[in-house]
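Archive entry: two folds, one per protein. Generate the first.
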Amino acid sequence: MDGRLVNFENANVHFVNAGLHYGISVFEGIRCYATERGPAIFRLQEHAERLLDSAQVIGFRDLPCSLEKLIEIILQTVAANGMGDCYIRPLIYLDGAMHMIVEGGKLKLGVAVWEWAHFLGAEAREKGDLKENAEYDAAKEAQGHLEARIQRLDGELANARVIDESTIDTSKVSILTKVTLTNLNNEKKVTYHLVSEKEADLKLGKISVTSPIGKGLLGKHVGDVAEVQVPAGTLKFKVEGISI
C-alpha cells in the first residue's frame, strides 16, 4: 500500500475514508496461474491499462503511478508473497477523511493478492467451479454473440430471394439497378448502385434502397427529378440513365 509492502492484516484505511463511504475508487480483478516457468499473470498489460483508463474516466488526476510502475508493483507483490495460483486486486482510491474530498484528498494505490482457494473455497476449486472464471465468462459471452449472429443469418437466408438480372426492368429505378444522376444543387453527376441494406457501401457507390436517397429514387424514370429530404435540407436529383 502506498509504495510499501505491508502484512495483510495491517492493510487498513480509516473508517471515515472518503473512498470507502462514497465508492471513490477503481479496481481490477486479475488472475495469476502457476506454471512450470513460474507465475503467469493473465493479460497484465491490458488490466493495468484499463485500471489507469478507468481512473481518468471518473475524473482522477495526478495518478499515483505510471503504467510501467503499476505493472512493476503488481509483479513485486506476487513475488513477495511467493504465490502461483492467486487473485490480484489493484485498487486506486481517494484517501483522506470525508471532509477532505474537495481539498486535501490524495489518490493512493493498493495491491492485494491471495490464493484462489481462499477466494473460491477449496471445494469449489477442486470441483472446477466456474462461476468466478473470467475467461470462461468471456468465452460464454463470445459464444452467445456468435449464436445470435448465426440466428440472424439464418433469418436472412430464410427471407432471401434470387433475382434474375435479365428480368429487371431498367425503364425505372429498382433494386440492383445502377442510376446515373445529376445533383441539381451543384450540377455534379454521380452514379449509384441500389442494393439491399446489408450490401450498402457508399465508398463503392452502393446505396441501400432503404436510405433517404434510395427511397427517393425508387420508381423514377429517366428524366424524372427526385427530391430527397436529408438533415442538411432538400436534394434534387435528375435521373440521367438506368442500367444493370
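Generate the second and append.
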Amino acid sequence: MTWQLSPCLRKLNHNSCCIAIGKIGIKRDTDHTNLRFYQFVFCAGLIAVSAILLCISAIGLSLDGTDEYPWAHGSSAQFTQPEVQGRYDNYAGLSGFVTTWQAINTTDNTAILNEVVPISWTDEQCILQCCGDCHTASVVSVSLVFVAILASLPTLMCNCQRASADSDDNVEKMLGVFGGIVCFACTLTAFVVYYTMCASKLPETTMYAYKFGGLEIPVTVKYSYDLGIGELSLIIATVFQFVAVINQIVVQTPEEHWGEEPDDNTPLLDKKEQDLIKELAKARKESRRLQKEQEKNKAKGDDLKLARDTAVNEANEAATAAHRAVKHLEEHGTKIGERQKKLDAAKALEGSLLHHENLSAQP
C-alpha cells in the first residue's frame, strides 16, 4: 500500500535535514529488491508484535487482572508447622498488588486457608512503604506504554511504505526513525521506571497470621521476586523495536530524492516530454542493468581466462612429462638392445667353443 505525500511533506522531503537522514546507511541496488522487501516486512512484523506485547503489559492496569498479568511476582513456599504447608504469592501491577495465602494440612490435604487480597496503591489499607512510589511509577509507566502504542502505528506504516524503493522517500525514513526511537525510548523508560521505583522496593519479608487448631499463628514469609509478564513483555518489545530502528537507519532512500525541490513555477511538461522523461528513466535503469550484466560477464570472462591459462599450463606440464617419458623409454630401449647384442655375442662365442671341443674330441 502506498500513498502520496501532502504538499507540506513534499517540501519537507527535499529539506537538507531530511536528505541527510535519507543518505545515512547502505545503498540497496536493484538486485537487492527482494531483500529490501523482506527486510522491511520482517521489521514491520516486529513492530506489530511489540505493539501486542505493550497491550498485554497494559492489562495489568486492572486490579482484577494483576494476579494473571503482574509486572512483578514474589513467591514463597515453606513449612510453617510440621503438619502445615503454606504458599504465599505477591503480585504487583499498575493499579496495586494482590496477595494470595494458601495453607494446606499435609496429613489429610485439606485447605486451612485460601485467601486472595487485592489492595490498590492509593488505598488506605496499603501500608507498604513503597505504595506511593509504586503508584507514581505505575502512572508514569502506563503513560509511556500508551505513547509507545500510539507511536507504533505510524512506525508500522513507514516500514510498509519503505518496503518498495518506488514508494520510499526521505520523509518516510525520518518518520520511521523518529517513531521507532520514540517507541524504543518510551518502552525502555517504562521498564526502568517501574523496576527501580516499585519492583525493587517491594517487601521481601512480610508477617501473616492464620488460624490453626483454634490458635492464631503468626508466620514470617520471605519472598523471592521475579519479573512478571508485564515487565517481560516490555523487555521483548524493546529488543524488537531496537532492531526495527536499526533497520530504518541502515537502509538509504533512493538517490532521486536527494536533489533539490522542483520549482512549482515551472510550466508543466506536455505529454511528449513526460513520455520522453519516462523513457529516459527506463533507459537509465536498463543501462544500469546492462552495466551490471557486463561486469558479471567480465568477471566470468576473467574466470574463463584463468581456467584456460591453468589448463594450458597443465597441458604444457603434461607434454613435458610425456616427452621425458618417451626419452626415458628410448634410452631404456637402447640399453636393452646393447644387452641383447652382448648376449648374442656371448652365445656365439659359447657355440664356437663347443664346436672346437667337439672337433678336438674326434679320433
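Annotation attached to the second fold: Residues 57-256 form one domain. The chain has two domains: 57-256, 279-363.
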